[in-house]
Each structure stands twice: as structure tokens, then as C-alpha cells.
Amino acid sequence: MSSTESMAGTEGVTISRTGQQGAFGGELLTVNFGPHHPSTHGVLRLIVDLDGEQIKRLKPVIGYLHTGIEKQMEALRWQQGVVVTDRHDYLSPPINNLAYALAVERLMGVEAPPRAQALRVIMSELTRLSSHLVWLGTSGLELGAMSMLMYCFRERETILDMNEEISGFRMHTSYIRPGGVMADATPRFLDMLASFVKEMPGHIDEYEDLLTMNPIWRARTIGIGRLSPEDAKVLGASGPMIRGSGIAWDLRKTMPYSGYESYDFEVATSDACDCYGRYLVRIKEMREAVKILDQALQRLPDGPVNVDDRKMLPPPREELETSMEAVIHHFKLFTEVYSVPAGDVYVAVESGRGENGCYIVSDGTHKPRRVKFRSASFVNLQALERMALNHMIADMIAIIGTADTVLGDVDR
Amino acid sequence: MIADNLITERGVSAGDEWITVPADNVHEALAALKGEGYRLLVFLTCVDHLVDQSRPSWPGRYELVYQLRDVEKLRELRVRAFVDGDPPEIESATDLFPPADWDERETYDLFGVRFKGHPELTRILMPDDWVGHPLRRDYPVGGEVVEFSEEHQRWQTPPDRA
Questions:
Q1: A315: preceding bond cis by omega (within 30 degrees)
Q2: Which residues from B are below 8 Å from A344, CB to CB?
Q3: Is B63 among the domain residues?
Q4: Residue A314 lies in a domain
């Protein structure tokens, strides 16, 4: 009793008594976990009822990172909205761009040219890799494998350098836009990508050497945070969360977009249904991503990277000097911008966390009426209670870690 | 397909199939669709059609959108229902689709739509003491005072001490 009272004075920990009886005759304790806890990957607060150290009830409290992105999108013009989409799931900006760009393109009835589609696939897979690397590094760090963070961030740095080379930005690239991509890939980018594809499988072996058979890592993850396939389906989980429960659901295979149907890759699954299974799925996904990158690089088609539609994208700079028509288009595009035909559309893409969807309603004007982001983290987080029940409070760290929620994506 | 008397309108928008059902029958329609194989609710949200001129008249101001997916046959269907009133009310779908829980809380928080039968309809993204529903079209952007700014200080200081 005296120990709980002394803990109550500690910063970030508040304890109250529920008066309910626990299994061992003691009372259930309600502990406030977070919101500013380093293991929550953002600002997540959990209200946990504990019987001793066992979790008996858990309630996530979210909204601390709510930035009103959907409201902002309604005030921005169609092509300005891309910049905002970068920022909700801040570990996978190009994939967010892709969902938005595909949705706008479907409403307008245009399709990006083949080279743009291949570049989109390259950027998506690079992003998936960098997102999984952040996950692996931070999860390793939280469970005691400090050096993972250094190794993972070393490779992530290479990916960020490539982002900078192709788009000028390291994180919020805004590279994929309605109608195509921002600019063609530079020769230096393609060189960097080629050497990255060559080196990365060796690095993934290094991570596996450190973790896969590591007794501490295995003790902390095997059998922890079990999510049965039935529960995963009913709770609407997606991404590594559902594949870690043995269900081969990957939007790149089941509902392909951007030409993913033409790439040869496997959907990573694991029947373990626990934290370790989700770890194996992500490692396998990283290997598959490198395979896709290799294929995309081998057969990168030539040609334009934007649709040839002057009503949607500005004319090239050279044309402005010789063509009156081009000047008119340029002026109209930057003063009035394009409008999107009235209607609504839902497009879902597979991000590092699962189904990242964009639902757009247009009323036929130059700004969207409603943009809704269906974020994988928001839905996956609802499965947290199911996974954490009857586990020790210390296992929460492994469970939150392998659920891989990005709180910016949850709160939007 | 579910009983035709439940469907008031149907169509295809940019390749996505949709149907409109009367707001009073939304639960019945969703239950029937779930029986037909649409077992996953991808998302649930609301659209505010205040002064929307893309259609001569809208059946109601708030449009509830349910995106359903049949993961076996790989098909999707969007169910729409229009509600009006202050506060707008509709039946909850949490008993059919567990992921609807947070989606409904979010829709209540941001649009003020009340879901009858929801186990715990509270704000989820905005603070509990927030006034108004930010994603309604008549809620201004930048209408709230930014905390810790000069304006906030002025707003916090009582008039007799200003």
C-alpha cells in the first residue's frame, strides 16, 4: 500500500482505487499510462485496470495529436491538399499522397502514365521500408535491443537521402501528386537506388542475426499480444496486424493499384498470431519490398511522368515562351485551378500499417467538400484491449510496439 | 440483394457502387447486407451538404456513409443515408460491426450526429469540454482561439484586469 502511494507522486503516473476485488483478494488499481510515455510512439493515453500487474481492462484515450487535417483539406484547393496528406501518417508520406492522388484521378477519369506509376511503386516501397525500419528500431530499443535503433536508422538515412534527391524533401516529400509525380527521377537517384537494392538484403540479415534467435527478444514477444484470426477479421484489423494472424490480406494483391499486379512478390503471413509473428511478417515484407524495388528498377519504362492534360497540370516552362495558349493555361491553372467533377470515391492503398484509404466527396468546385482518411492505425488501435488482456503491464510495451500505430495517423 | 423497398436510390460514382437507404431503416439494411457477405465495415463517416449546389435538392443535410466490403468476393458497396434535425439522430451499427464504435464516436464528435444505442457516445478526438462540432460546414476554420498566443492571453484576462 505504501509503495502505491509513493508511486502516485511520480510524474506521469496517477493511481486511483476502483474498489473492485481482484483475483488475489486485493483491489483493482486504475493506472494512467501516458499520454507522454516514450513507448507509446506519440501521445497515447491508456487507462488500465490492474490486478497486481495483470491488465484486466484497458481503454485507449486518443485525440492528443488531432490537428484537424480533414477540416484543413476542405479549405485548400485540390492540388494544395497533397501537402497536408503528407502529415497525418508521418512515417509514410508518399503512400498517403498516393491514396489522395489516386482518388482525385479516379474522380477526374485520368490515369497516370506508366513511368509515373513505376516511380509511385518505387516510392511506396521505399516508404514501406523506412516505416518498418523505424518500427524495428524503436521496438527493439523499447525491449532492450538498443543497437537496433542505430542499425535501422543508418539504413533509413539512406532512404531519406533518396527522398531528398528525388523530391527535395527528406520526410514530407509531396512527391506523388494528382496526375503523376512531381518530377522525373534523376540519374543519381537511380544509381542510389541500385546500390541500395544491392546492399539492403545483407542489412536485413544483420537485423535478423540480432533479433530472430535472440532469447530476450523471443521471451518478450512469443505468446504475447495474441490476436486470433477471427478477432482480427471482426475488428477490421489490416496490414501486418491481420497478416501476423495468418490471413493473407494485402491490398497490393487483393485489390491492386498502380500496376502492383505486374510485380512478382509474396504476401508475408505468420500463423503465430503474437508479437513475434508480427515481427516476422514485417521482416519478410522488407525483403519483399526490396524484391519489388529491384523489379521496378529493372523495367522502369520511359516516357512522361505526368498526364498530358493542360487543364490539370501546368505546361512545361519552355512552352510558355512560344505559345499563347500555354500562357493562358498557366494563368488559369494558378488563379482558378482545376475543378473535379461532382461525385464521391474511395481508394485504399496498403501502407506499412495497413489499409490507408482516402474517401473524397467533390461538389464540382475547386475545393473538396469532404476528405476522410481511413487510417489503419485508428482501426488497429481498437484491437489493443483484445491483445493486452490478462498480460503483464510490462508486456504492454511489446504490444503497443508491434501494433505499430502512428498517433498522427490515429488522430489526424 | 437486399429488399428493394429498402433502397431509395442506387448508382455508381467513379466506379464505386452505392445505394441510398432511408435513415430509419439503416440498421435493418446493414444487417441484411452483412448477411449477404459484406462483413467488413471499412469506415463510417458523415458528409455535411449545407449549401451544396451540386444537386438541386438534397434529401437531408447530413449524409451518413458506410463503406462495406465483402472480403471473399472482393466487392464493395457504399450505403448512404440522409438525416436532418438538431441534433441529427440515427441508429448505431456497433452491434453489427465492432469497428464502428470509434468511427461513430468520431462522427458524433466532429459532426454532432447522435447514434442511438451506442454504448459510450463521447468525444474522441476533441477535448471533452469542447463546444461545437468542427467538421460541420458552418464551423469556421481558424474560429477558435490559439492557446498560448497573444489572443489567448487577451481572451483569458478578465475585462476588469485588462
A1: no
A2: 13-14, 16, 18, 47, 65, 78
A3: yes
A4: no
